[in-house]
Amino acid sequence: xxxxxxxxxxxxxxxxxxxxxxxxxxxxxxxxxxxxxxxxxxxxxxxxxxxxxxxxxxxxxxxxxxxxxxxxxxxxxxxxxxxxxxxxxxxxxxxxxxxxxxxxxxxxxxxxxxxxxxxxxxxxxxxxxxxxxxxxxxxxxxxxxxxxxxxxxxxxxxxxxxxxxxxxxxxxxxxxxxxxxxxxxxxxxxxxxxxxxxxxxxxxxxxxxxxxxxxxxxxxxxxxxxxxxxxxxxxxxxxxxxxxxxxxxxxxxxxxxxxxxxxxxxxxxxxxxxxxxxxxxxxxxxxxxxxxxxxxxxxxxxxxxxxxxxxxxxxxxxxxxxxxxxxxxxxxxxxxxxxxxxxxxxxxxxxxxxxxxxxxxxxxxxxxxxxxxxxxxxxxxxxxxxxxxxxxxxxxxxxxxxxxxxxxxxxxxxxxxxxxxxxxxxxxxxxxxxxxxxxxxxxxxxxxxxxxxxxxxxxxxxx
Length: 463
Ligand code: PXG
Description:
Layout: H1 10-20, H2 28-34, E1 39-43, E2 46-49, E3 54-57, H3 60-63, H4 72-84, H5 97-109, E4 114-120, H6 123-140, E5 148-152, H7 161-166, H8 170-173, E6 183-186, H9 191-194, H10 200-218, E7 223-228, H11 244-255, E8 258-262, H12 276-280, E9 286-289, E10 301-306, H13 307-314, H14 328-343, H15 346-363, E11 371-377, E12 380-385, H16 400-411, E13 414-415, E14 417-419, E15 422-425, H17 433-456
Parallel strand pairs: 3-13, 5-6, 5-7, 7-8, 8-9
Antiparallel strand pairs: 1-2, 2-3, 4-10, 9-10, 11-12, 12-15, 14-15
Helix pairs in contact: 1-2, 4-14, 5-14, 10-11, 15-17, 16-17
This protein binds 3-[O-phosphonopyridoxyl]--amino-benzoic acid (PXG).
Residues 62, 122-124, 127, 156-158, 229, 233-234, 262, 264-265, 288, 290, 301 line the site of 3-[O-phosphonopyridoxyl]--amino-benzoic acid.
Keywords: Aminotransferase, Pyridoxal phosphate, Transferase
Protein name: Aminotransferase class III-fold pyridoxal phosphate-dependent enzyme
Pfam families: Aminotran_3 (PF00202)
């Protein structure tokens, strides 16, 4: 079979998929039984599947399709670039126009003196770059013992050996021999799940001070960097208390450790500013970017670094790089995506229109009997499903309510993800108030159906 088209019957596509395609983060045997949903095309915020269902994509793919689907401009740029120069590398003293223009544009958009970009093909690769770069930075400065990178439990930084080690996902560490040496994890600022009786702000401060404790325990002379997502995404859209980030910044400054903001989800408008670090008021030395950089239309990521880091790393040869670092087609597509984000005022649309409207509707979901809290920053939100609204106690059977709710979302033509018993959204940034109304009404219907199912199965008890 050399020409799979969208015209095969769904069952035939599913059978071929099950026979030959290994899916990420999926129990493939189970998937083979059920059959994968086949997505055939998309436009704006709407996906169409092979059965003709039109599905509202409240996850923007995997948090990435910031400008929405179906923008011909990106397709045209890609085709033009493929004809002109489909590939050339940026090793060995060469460069090309798309990568130059993209690096300059990112430098212009990035805050402070984050003026230099090392390109990668994905967020995982970019974080692998960061591991090597921060360790090499300190070695070049005559402090080779500074090699420990501090991260957080329940962080997500990618799936490669290095980035998966930076991440704090226990299910990932359990497979394939992670983490690599000299990665240290502290606790996350997840008040809802872990804050006990503490006031959220007091808890946020305490969790930030874990960084200081870790630095003192490990020894300042061993610590290279701290990495974190401004708002944890894959961990469940966990918005830290307001006390958290200023204290982290204070500690990074005091001990002179590099701060890496992983902006793979938060970057390019998601939080209502160009970058999440601006929303959280922090000054990273390095930002990891991917996803929204090209709105997912082409695979590209990178590390955006400060003048100081670039000067130290650039003084000698950094023995690092990927075949597709600064790929001309991906770079041209990303540049066009940034043009659209900027010229169409999409970040302003988020800040002034979409995010305030979504926040009001999202937070109102707390009137539902299943919803314990609603959190939202810009266009990333989460709700905690609870068996009993009088307390923060979790379900006795963790994850089932979330799973049922996600299935009910699908049944109502809405893509909303679950992380355990938290439901999360991250819609395309171009979503309109009318489309937000549709999102919320489908979410409410799914919540109602989930509640009914939990009642029927006698699963509304706390653990
Ligand atoms: N950092 C962050 C903060 C991410 O969210 C990566 C790095 C890795 O990027 P790449 O491009 O290598 O995937 C991510 C990716 C999920 C999910 O289920 C989240 C991601 C990827 C896949 C699934 O929420 N985030």
